[in-house]
Recover the amino acids of this structure.
DNA sequence: CTTCTTATTTTTCATATGATAAATAAGCTG
DNA sequence: CAGCTTATTTATCATATGAAAAATAAGAAG
């Protein structure tokens, strides 16, 4: 009786290979983002509503399926318009950064993306390291370059220390997503304000640390005694 | 012959329970930090130079062992002197922050700590969420409070936006550790410079974003429509 | 309706896993 | 050395895992 209830006619329905395949990948991303890549193929199949061996009809091995998941997460989320946005000098760099980070975080601030990103990082997969390079080239180097242009600083490739400072901004914003969607700890709800403040601090700060031609402060080693005078 | 070589007399050596136990925990931290908490007990035992069932003499279950690992990672690394350092008003806040972050990152910027921290975060264990609260109370709230004191601002509890800004700093510095020890991507080697610049940007920036009584810029909401008109 | 392709399921395998029970031996005490 | 405690090992179990082979049935084509 209970048995009969469970065996409720699987109603085997055939899907077109393309449909099935993309459905597998999409749901596998959800699944692995929660369970980690050690999640079992049987449990995954149950979630997919099919039997486990069917997975092996579409992917030669679990690893191949995982690779497809990486692809959708890492490759399919970059909006090509962002390239233009960041380099559009008709807008102040501050506005460009605000808009970009709002859009970018709209894309990556969700449990699925963030968790897969971290799982991938911990596994040391090369696509993750590659992505870090992309971030530096497509986002941070541009921000520094555009900032320098707007500040009237000489046109030269971003210095390591400048990039590093941009990384602190990037990491700081990223960490906000972590706290919100991974730790699920209470955070300031208005993402736009958080971004705006972070960007403002970055822009105000960097001009003083590296100098808008005016005050060149190397920051470290200096640090006199501004206690009160 | 090969067999004989392998069975090279296990040379069973008895250790005192305390010694063995702490050895297990220490090496288990190393092991799990690399393999993740899904790492097998047999492989762990092999690394420990003992047989797998011996682990169960010292810990009722794998989970109990893992809990001990958490303890050493999360509880045993906070230096009580840091509490005094951050609140020592005989030093400029900038110096305090510099010293603190140098020491703090000396403690946590290593593969083992960072990876276990991330694995724990992904598992959603409560000790990890608890730690996030500790960071906010013991580090960030203090930084904001001490900054306000030094800037001559009214003595009031840190505003959410201020804490959030401190989180961006914290996260930015954390992310530097990630890039260096988890991604193993090329970074600026001089950690002190990175910290100094980040702290400088934070202090210079925050005073302008929240105003040292002088310029109060709310930053966001400003940003009109500079498209072109 | 019959035939044929192939998407899907049922069986099955080899291995790995966390954990337990029984056997062994290290090393202290007399 | 004898005797005893217990740290450590040698089986062993039940279950879960990724994967392959064989059996079934959905659905299009004739």
């Amino acid at each position: 009786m209970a048995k009969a209830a469970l065996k409720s006619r699987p109603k085997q329905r055939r899907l077109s290979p393309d449909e099935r395949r993309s459905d597998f990948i999409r749901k596998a991303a959800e699944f692995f983002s929660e369970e980690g890549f050690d999640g079992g193929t049987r449990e995954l199949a149950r979630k997919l509503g099919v039997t486990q061996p069917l997975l092996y009809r579409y992917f030669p091995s679990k690893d191949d399926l995982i690779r497809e998941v990486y692809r959708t997460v890492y490759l399919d989320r970059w909006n090509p318009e962002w390239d233009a946005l960041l380099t559009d000098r008709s807008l102040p760099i501050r506005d460009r950064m605000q808009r970009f980070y709002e859009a970018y975080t709209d894309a990556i601030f969700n449990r699925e993306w963030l968790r897969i990103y971290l799982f991938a990082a911990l596994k040391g997969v090369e696509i993750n390291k590659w992505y870090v390079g992309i971030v530096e080239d497509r986002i941070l180097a541009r921000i520094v370059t555009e900032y320098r242009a707007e500040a009237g600083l000489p046109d030269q490739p971003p210095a390591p220390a400048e990039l590093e400072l941009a990384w602190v901004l990037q990491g700081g914003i990223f960490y906000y997503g972590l706290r919100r969607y991974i730790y699920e700890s209470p955070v300031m709800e208005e993402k736009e304000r958080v971004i705006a403040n972070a960007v403002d601090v970055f822009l105000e700060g960097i001009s003083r640390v590296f100098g808008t031609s005016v005050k060149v402060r190397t920051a470290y080693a200096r640090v006199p005694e501004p206690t009160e005078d």
Residues 10, 12-17, 20, 50-51, 53-54, 57 of chain A lie near DNA strand C (CB under 10 Å from a C1').
